[in-house]
Give the backbone structure.
Amino acid sequence: MDLVSAQVNWAEILSGAIVGLLIGLTGVGGGSLMTPVLVLLLGVQPLTAVGTDLWFAATTKIVASRVYHSHVLIDWPVVGRLWLGSLPAALLTLLWLSHQVKRPQVDPWVLTAIALSVGLSALMMLMRRRWAASGEDTPALSSRIKALQLTLTVIAGALLGVLVTLTSVGAGAIGATMLSYLYPQRLHPSRLIGTDIVHAVPLTLFAGIGHLWIGDVNFGLLGTLLIGSIPGVIVGSLLSTRLPATALRRMLAVILLLVSVKMLTAVMP
């Protein structure tokens, strides 16, 4: 029994290290990477994978947000607009989950939502720059979006609140793409990332606490994942300046698309 437990722990530590390395190399959010790993490779139940990954994401994003805050790379008005939508949406999603968690059909629904969210994240990783440029280069479109920025940002926050709470995916690639399209001139890349990360901190914490209340968090698993991911992020960050980040992100996006298809086929009868 001890040998089996040790093997499982090493598998979890290695999974955390690989995901941490990829986060450091590409800047891609951990949800789109960690949740599929937990479900497909480690055999974790979908809701438990979501709840555990939310705490994983919250821990890593708290550390990252301190760095961006110290460099004044956070647009707090935009963060506030996102919170107006995301936190109430997260609460409503948690209330729905709390009534569905004992039903046998909830796991296929959550697995499908994870697969679609991972696929959407991959597409947005591939298309983000093009979509942001289209919003910036088309004055008429840009002016219409600017007139509705507040409303659209709250709606974007609500969509992220539902996605993150239900799947733990979306706070990274999807959130950054939405912000780059809504604020192409206001948010330069570093400020965009900082704003997106800080918005995600209370959202992932709030959703994580909700999943803990429902009973969907495995803190033992979380601990072993963090043991591997923290050095992985450090190594990846150091290597990122020496490797072609854009090419790595594109390659990772293609892999995530394949993972999304794999998860969808697992749900289909």
